[in-house]
Amino acid sequence: MLKLIEEYIRNSLPYYKNVKVLNENEYPKYKDHVFSLVMEGKVTLEGQSVTIQIALDKHFPLYKPLFFLKPYDALGFIAHVDSSGFICYIHDEGLLIDTNNVTGIIEEAFDKVLKTLKDGINGINRKDIQNEFESYWSHLDNTFLIESNIELTNNVKKIKVAKFENYPYYFAGDSISDIMNYCYKYIGKTRMGKPIFIDALYIPLREGTDIIPPSYGTFWTMKKFRHIIYKNVTSSNKKIIEHIVKHKVRSSDVLIVLVSIPLLNGNKAFIGVKYSNFSAIKQGANKRTEYFSHPLYKTDAKCKFVPVRIVRHDKGYIMPRGGGINLLTSKKVALIGCGSVGGYIAVELAKAGVQNITLIDQDTLMQENVYRHTLGVNSLIPERYKNNEGTVKFHSKILGLKREIEEKLPYTNIEVLPEYIDRIENIISNNIVDFWKYDLVIVAIGNPTIELYINEYFHKKNGMPPVIFTWLEAYGIGGHAILTNNNNKNGCLKCLYTDPFDKQAPLYNRASFAAAGQFFAKQISGCGSVYMPYGSIDSMQTAIVATRLAIDVLIGKEKDNPILSWKGNADLFLDNGFKLSEYYFLTNENLFNSRYLYKNDFCDICGNLKGV
User: Fold this and answer.
1) According to the model, what pLDDT value does residue 285 have?
2) Prokaryotic E2 family B domain: from which residue to which, for each copy (predicted)?
3) Which runs of consecutive H residues, i.e. helices, occur in 467-535?
4) Among residues 16, 208, 241, 579, which one has the fewest Cβ atoms lying within 10 Å of its Cβ?
C-alpha cells in the first residue's frame, strides 16, 4: 500500500511539487509517532514557496496524516504551527477517518493544511494564537514549571510559592495553608519533605487585553514585560503594583510574577516569569551593591529572566465548568443513607460540583459490603489505627466517604459529625440536624417504612427543602428516584402507597417493578447476614438517576415532582420464581412520559382531597 500512496503523493496530489521520499534519519520527531513513510515537497502559498513534509504513522490510516512546515517559521509566526513545524489542521478528538479511502484522506487533509497556512499568512486566524496562548507559551525555550492552586481573581495580590525538599516543582498558592492543605493530598506529606516559602506576585490583566505570546526561539525583555503589565492593568491594580515594587530586591532573591490574561473565547491564560541571579549592569560603578530596584519598577540590574509555565490546580480550572453546573458550588445537600446507592450519590454529587455535602448514616462498612459499595477494603479500618493509634474497629461509612471524597476532590467539604452516625429517626426526634439550611435532602436508606416517616416529617414542617427518595429493586430489575416538596407542587412518596380506588388496600408501592406480596431478601449465614440481592452496577445506575434529578433541582431546571425510573433485565428475577408487576412492562418512553401521573389527590400527606 505504501508504494501506491507514494506514487499518488508524488504524481497526483494537487499543488505539491518537487516531491521526494526522505530517509529514516531525516524523519521528523513528533510525540510517540513512528513513521512508515515521510515525503517532502514544495507548495506555493500567497506567492511564497515553502517546504511541507507529509508523514504517515506506521498505523496509517488509523491515524491522520501529519504535516510539518520546514522551517517552522518559514511563514513567520502564524497560528497552528508549533516549534517543531507541526501543523495542527484538525483535532483528533471525535475524528472519524474513512480508512477505505487512503488517497482521499491525504488529499482532504492536505487541503485543510493549505487553508490553515493561508489563514495564518493573511491573519484570518490570528485570534487563535491568543486563544491558545498557554500552548504557545509552553513551547518557549528555558521554561520553568510551577504548579498552582491560586484563585484567578481580578485583583493584584501577594501570593506564596513553596519549594519542597523532595519534590521537583515549585507550588504556588494564595497562602501557606492553601498550599499545604492541597499538597498533603496531592503529593503526600512524606514525599513533600520540608518546604521553603518565598513571596510572589499575582497580576490580572484587564478585559480587552490584546497581546500574543513571543514567537518561538525568542522571549520578551524585562522592559517589554514591564510595558505589557502597566499597559494592560486597571488603574486600581496599577497603584497596588507601584506600591509593592518600591521595595528593593537582593542579588540572591528569586522573584516570581504570575499573570492571568483574559482571552477572546472567555477563558483565561495563566503564565508567569521568574527573575533570579541579580547583578549590577555596570560592574565598575556599583559592583558591591547587593540591593537593586524591583524589575517591575525599573531595570538597574541584569538577571536571569525566564518564562514560567503553570500547571493549574485551582478550583476554577479543575472543577466542572459551564452552564448551570456553576450554580452547584454554593449549594448544600444533606444525604441520608450512604450505603451502596447513597455512597455513589455522594461521590457523583461532589464530582458534579456540589462542594458542601452532609452525610448521615448509622452503619459501619463491613467486608461483605465492598463489592457493591464505592468504598473498598482500604476503608474498613480507620487510618488512625493503621498508624498505630486507637483500637481496631470497623469504619463508619460516612467517615470513610468523607476521607475518600476529600482526598480525591480537594475543594469539597464533607460534613460529618459523631452525632450523624445514628438512626435518622433519632436525629429527627432530637433535632440534631437543621434541615432548613439545605437546598436539597436525598434519602437512600432502602427502608420504605422509615422513608414514609421522613416523607411525612418534611411535609409537616414549613419551609423545608425539596427531598429525593431513591431506592433499588431486587435482582437488578430497576431503580427509582422520586422528588417531593419541590416548588409548592403536590406529589410525594406516600402517593405511591395510596390506592386511589381503595383506601383499605394493603400498602404497596405502585411504582414497583415486582408484583405485590413477595419477599426478596437472602441470607448467607443466618439472620444476621440478610441482604437484598443486587449488584454494584444496579446501585450505580440508580445513583445516576437520583444524581441527575438532584442536579436538575439544584440548578432550577426541574419545577415539579417527578418519579424517574430505570428498568433492567428481569431474567434472573424470573429464574428465582418471582413475578413482575404490570408497571414493569411499560416502555421506557411511557415511564418517562408518565413521571408526574403517580400523584394521588387522596394522599393524606400532599393530596388536594386528603381527608375526603
Assistant:
1) 53
2) 37-145
3) 493-496
4) 208
Q: Which fold has domain 323-486+535-570?
A: Rossmann fold (3.40.50)
Positive or negative, the Cα torsion across 117, 121, 122, 126?
positive
Q: How far is CA 493 from the centre of its chain?
A: 34
Nearest to 407 by CA among 378, 364, 433, 369: 378
What contacts 84, CB < 8 A, 6 or more positions away?
A: 28, 29, 30, 68, 72
The one-letter code for the residue type at 554 is: L
Contact 462, 529 (CB under 8 A): no
Q: Is the fold of 1-123 the same as that of 323-486+535-570?
A: no
CB atoms within 10 A of CB 270: 24
Please give the pLDDT value at position 368. Answer: 66
Give which of 533, 537, 552 is closest to 442, Cα–Cα: 552
Q: What is the dihedral of CA 129, 134, 139, 145, to 10 degrees?
A: 170
pLDDT digits (tens, 9 = 90+) for 50-90: 999 999 999 999 999 999 999 999 999 999 999 999 999 99
Q: Are 92 and 86 in contact (CB under 8 A)?
A: no
CA–CA separation, 488 and 485 (whole Å): 6
Residue 155: all three cell numbers together: 485583583
Q: What's 1-123's CATH class?
A: alpha beta
Domain residues of the chain, as ranges? 1-123, 136-313, 323-486+535-570
Q: 3-state DSSP call for residue 90?
A: coil
What is the DSSP secondary-structure string of 563-586? Answer: EEEEE---HHHHHTT--B-GGGGS
The backbone torsions φ and ψ at residue 541, rounded to the nearest 5 degrees and listed phi first, read -65, -40
DSSP state of 508: -
Give the tens place of pLDDT for each residue, 213-259. 999 999 999 999 999 999 999 999 999 999 999 999 999 999 999 99
Are the beta carbons of 390 and 384 closer than 8 angstroms? yes
- In order, the DSSP letters of 310-331 are EEE--HHHHS--SGGGGGGGG-
| DSSP string across 355-408 | -EEEEE--PBP-GGGGGGSSS-GGGSS-HHHHTT-S---PPBHHHHHHHHHHHH
Strand positions, DSSP E, 62-208: 66-70, 144-148, 157-164, 170-173, 195-204
DSSP 226-253: HHHHHHSS-HHHHHHHHHHTTS-EETT-
191 and 155 in contact (C-beta within 8 Å)?
no
Per-10-residue mean pLDDT, the chain, length 612: 92 94 93 94 96 96 96 95 94 85 95 96 93 94 97 97 95 97 89 92 96 94 97 97 94 96 94 95 64 92 96 89 71 95 95 95 75 68 52 70 91 93 94 97 96 97 97 94 97 92 83 89 44 76 97 97 97 93 96 96 85 53
The model's pLDDT over 297-326, given as tens digits with 9 standing for 90+, comes to: 998 889 999 999 999 999 989 886 655 567
d(CA 235, CA 219): 27
521, 527 Cβ separation under 8 angstroms: no
Half-sphere exposure of 210 toward its Cβ, with a 13 Å CA cutoff? 3
